[in-house]
Amino acid sequence: MEILQNLMTGFGIALSLQNIGYCLAGVFFGQMIGVLPGIGAPTAIAILLPLTFHVNPTSAIIMFAGIYYGVAYGGTITSVLINVPGESSSVMTCVDGYAMAQKGRAGAALSVAAIGSWIAGTFAVVLLMCFAPALAKFALRFGPGEYFGLALMSFGLLTVFGGGDPIKVIFSTLVGLLIATIGLDVVSGVPRFAFGVPQLLGGIDFVVVICGIFGLAEVFNSIEEPEEGELLKQKIRLKDVFLTKADWIASRWAIVRGGIIGFFVGIIPAGGITTASFLAYLAEKRVSKHPERFGKGAIEGVAAPESANNAASISGFAPLLALGIPGSPTTAVMLAGFMMWGIRPGPLLFQNNADLVWGLIASKFMGNLILLIMNLFLIPLFVLVLRVPYTILMNFIVIFAAVGAYTVNNNLFDVWVMVGFGILGYLMKKLNYPIVPLVLGLVLGRLAENSLRQALTISGGSISIFIERPITVIFLILALLGYLTPLIRWGMRRFGLRGLGLNVEKL
Amino acid sequence: MWLGQLIAALCVIGLGAGVIVFSWDLQYFSEFGPGPGFLPQLLGYGITLCGAVILIKVLRAKERGGGFVKPRTLLGAKFLALIIPAFLLFPVLGFSVGLALLTGVTMRIMGRHDWLQCLITTVAVAVGIRYVFADWLTIPIPAGLLGW
Q1: How many CB atoms lie within 10 A of CB A88?
Q2: Predicted ipTM?
């Protein structure tokens, strides 16, 4: 009953003319950005974040949430029409989506993706509504030990879900933590790694780092390795987007399964929408009576990953809102936004900023509906965006990144720091060092260090404080399992055991 | 790419060693608990260890092919070479004119657009930046000698 009351309050906020406008803008721009290769949701939010200093935080977060799930769907359009995923979460959609488009069924592929996203998204919002407040209530019992364990678990899970070389994932996390230590120490007031530079005494703002590492670095990477594909010359008429009865029968359970998988994977810190779409595709292929159809234009091969990535993009807000722990790079950037607006996500957010939380949750119902309507009617418009020359587009990214970095402290020093991180991000990506752990380490660095120091201060320096309470022990065991993943994988290979089979090449 | 990986691994070790050296003077433990040097020192050791493992993996790698410089790498370097002077000239040109010139020049040099298109875009971007950021969003972006 309390949830329904809160939801009504949320609708009162979300349905104001101003917030409808921000939601509409977020979903619209999110889809445009999703269509463009080389710019993802974290980049878009990072470069727009500093521009929302003067905007009401509730409106800004509603807009960013719209961008997030708009991007998740926008990537589908390029996956289906040019076989290039606009977003990593749409990689699996390419497999059957493009095959459908080649058979002249691009409209149906885009339509099932939109409808699946809407159904799974709405389902995820209902679960989020029930789950997030309960999680927040539970988290009220957390002390510094638990928060340190939680941060450590998030870092540990990155080695499982982050992909790539686990040692590089750990290194990248440590660099993020290191950047977070730059500036005056909050406890002793001693400067750390400032090297006499006055601008570094206040630390390096994560918005500046994010603008460089996601914005500028993406420009360099896209110049070097442009994602090119041939646009299918296929006219999508309105009647093509309506699904047939056979399409509905084939995709209905795929949407349900994709939605459930997406929701639960999205909740896991570091789980992410890409993992959700991979797992949903894999699961759908396993349960299918005709797995041989996958890869040749099976409609359920589009419905499952698309439903999963939308559900995960919504459930990813649960750890962010209830615990203050981001589950993906995009929610990590949003956490930076919350901090910029002076709001600390976590258990108390549901009490202290109930309007914001419930306004955001209610806006997701609205956003998903806007997404569905836009996709059924505006696909040709989004396809036009693909024709913008990259030389113009990359300058827009640079303009937003430069202004964004400058806006944080109104000084040019931050613009140069942004350029430095842009080069670092480019080199890291080129040399296969993951960027996401660095961002997560940076955003959670202060929380992790302060919690660790508080816990050890309380215990007089004894690490027994981390094994006194069961929740901390669970978090630390999960963290340890995450860090031991490379060894477990090595052991499985060594003794000839098969893993989960999550191998993209084999799909 | 192998050489690039090797250099990167050495840089990682260098970074770790640097962190240990620079955090050495910071107090590791105080009477109230961990001091300001506690985490940095642990991070320094962690980074060095990661660097050592990466280095071993690179040295043991059987495949050593693939160059660091790809056909379009120089294009990226060219863009960086255009960004740096444009940003250096911000105090003189201001944000809007500096970024607009960067757009026009990159369109001409990297995109091979015709002069008229570049000129129109440059003017439009300068006006757009001024209007959107300075007037509409009231961000105090630095103005140059032209007052823009």
Answers
A1: 17
A2: 0.94
